[in-house]
Design a protein that fits this description.
- The complex is a heterodimer.
- By secondary structure, chain A is α+β, with helices and mostly antiparallel strands.
- Helix content of chain A is 37%, strand content 27%.
- Chain A has one domain.
- Chain A is built from 4 helices and 6 strands.
- In chain A, strands 1, 2, 3, 4, 5 and 6 form a 6-stranded antiparallel beta sheet that branches.
- Chain A starts with 12 loop residues before the first helix and ends in a 7-residue tail after the last helix.
- In chain A, 35% of the residues are buried.
- Chain B is α+β, with helices and mostly antiparallel strands.
- Chain B folds into 2 domains: 119 residues, no CATH class; 43 residues, no CATH class.
- Helix content of chain B is 35%, strand content 20%.
- Chain B has 5 helices and 7 strands.
- In chain B, strands 1, 2, 3, 4, 5, 6 and 7 form a 7-stranded antiparallel beta sheet that branches.
- In chain B, a hairpin with a 4-residue loop joins strand 5 and strand 6.
- In chain B, helix 2 packs across helix 3.
- Classes of the chains: A alpha+beta, B alpha+beta.
- Chains A and B meet through helix 1, strand 6, helix 3 and helix 4 of A and strand 1, strand 7 and helix 5 of B.
Chain lengths: 177, 205
């Protein structure tokens, strides 16, 4: 995009919340497997140990769920079913033999507390190259996930098929389907 | 929190504008001219800011390209902001004691406001001379080929300060990244921008 607006493209806050819930639902539905097309290929993405909720239209956090079972805990589904939106989601991402752990936060889908794979840099070379390679790979995966979400959201079936399935799942149903 | 070590928390910006001819020398000048400079006196309460090398916050000499330009694509540098502050409750308590001593010396009940102001100035001067500044360092990595910048900052005030100094140093603007920037298709961006919330996230804009 070549937008020259001083503050960048305006991003409606509901998009990120919906993206986070869609990621959560899809990861349960597809046993964590996402097909992102070329050049990213297949990746595994699952919700890790942290979910943060807030009330719609509010900026204050209203619930934080942590621990190994954050995404499967009854409280997290109850928060969704109760109309709360996801403000932050912690993900584990695996591509080939590299594994990342990252929180996506807020309307900007900011990359926070990203744990990158260990550096394989020689002692006399700056670790920056490795760090940036891994950061860029992580960001490309997130970008590809967002692109798949955007495509799904613009699909004619979003209202008639996808949303009802997500709603049923958020109210305690299975994600499969 | 930094770019080079530990868990990475960053904000991403697009760098708007073309790299100038001979940008390496131009950017070195920009960094050097806007580098951190130690304040002339050690008694000021105002903030002091400027660029430093990421290797050590006391290094402000950008002459050697290899310390901040990682060929072919990356520029790594940091914004250092120093601020001296005094513990308010302690200053208040010390001032009260000095006012009492002043009044007792002169056999009066209270010290007048003007004297109190002078005593406060003296006290702050004494304490600031002995106080080390609070130092904040925010690292940034600029991808010169793809024209984006990662800033290891979480606070909006740091981001604003960084963006201003960046513009003053390099003549280029930093525009916050949006997830919609990831979408290649312009019509898709517009549809997403104008989309209404789905039931799962009934946001009020």
């Amino acid at each position: 995009m070549s937008d020259a607006n001083e503050e960048g493209l305006p991003t409606p806050p509901h998009l990120s919340s919906e993206f986070y819930v869609w990621l959560w639902w899809e990861s349960e539905r597809n046993s964590a497997r996402f097909e992102l097309g070329e050049p990213m290929g297949q990746v595994e993405v699952w919700v890790d140990e942290r979910l943060v909720f807030r009330r719609p239209g509010d900026t204050k956090v209203s619930a934080v769920l942590t621990g190994d079972d954050a995404s499967t805990a009854l409280e997290s589904r109850a928060a969704l079913a109760g109309g709360k939106v996801v403000e932050e989601i912690r993900l584990r991402i695996r591509r080939d033999d590299r594994e990342y752990s990252v929180s996506l936060k807020g309307a900007a889908v900011a990359i926070q507390r990203a744990k990158l794979p260990p550096s394989g840099t020689d002692a006399d070379e700056s670790p920056l190259y490795d760090r940036m390679f891994h950061y860029e790979e992580l960001e490309k995966v997130v970008a590809a996930l967002f692109t798949v979400f955007a495509k799904a959201r613009q699909d004619n079936n979003w209202e008639s098929e996808t949303l009802p399935k997500m709603k049923s799942w958020s109210q305690g149903g299975l994600a499969a389907g | 929190m930094g770019i080079m070590t530990g868990a990475l928390s960053v904000r991403r910006f697009r760098v708007v504008g073309d790299l100038p001819e001979g940008f390496r020398d131009r950017f070195r000048e920009g960094l050097q001219e806007n580098a951190f400079k130690e304040p002339l006196t050690d008694i000021g309460k105002e903030e002091t800011e400027g660029w430093v090398l990421t290797q050590n916050l006391l290094d402000m000499d950008f002459t050697d390209f290899t310390r901040w330009l990682f060929e072919p694509s990356y520029m790594l540098f940091a914004l250092r902001v120093d601020k001296k502050s005094l513990p308010g409750r302690l200053v208040k308590a010390m001032l009260q004691k000095r006012c009492e001593a002043w009044a007792e010396e002169r056999g009066v009940q209270r010290c007048p406001a003007s004297v109190r102001t002078d005593l406060l100035e003296d006290l702050e001067y004494e304490l600031l001379k002995k106080t080390l500044p609070r130092v904040a360092v925010t690292e940034a990595c600029w991808h010169l080929d793809d024209q984006f910048l990662l800033l290891a900052a979480s606070s909006d005030s740091v981001v604003d300060r960084f963006r201003k100094r960046f513009f003053n140093s390099f003549g280029l603007r930093l525009v916050p990244w949006s997830p919609l920037d990831w979408l290649q298709d312009k019509s898709s961006v517009e549809m997403m921008m104008n989309s209404a919330p789905s039931f799962l996230a009934m946001e009020t804009e």
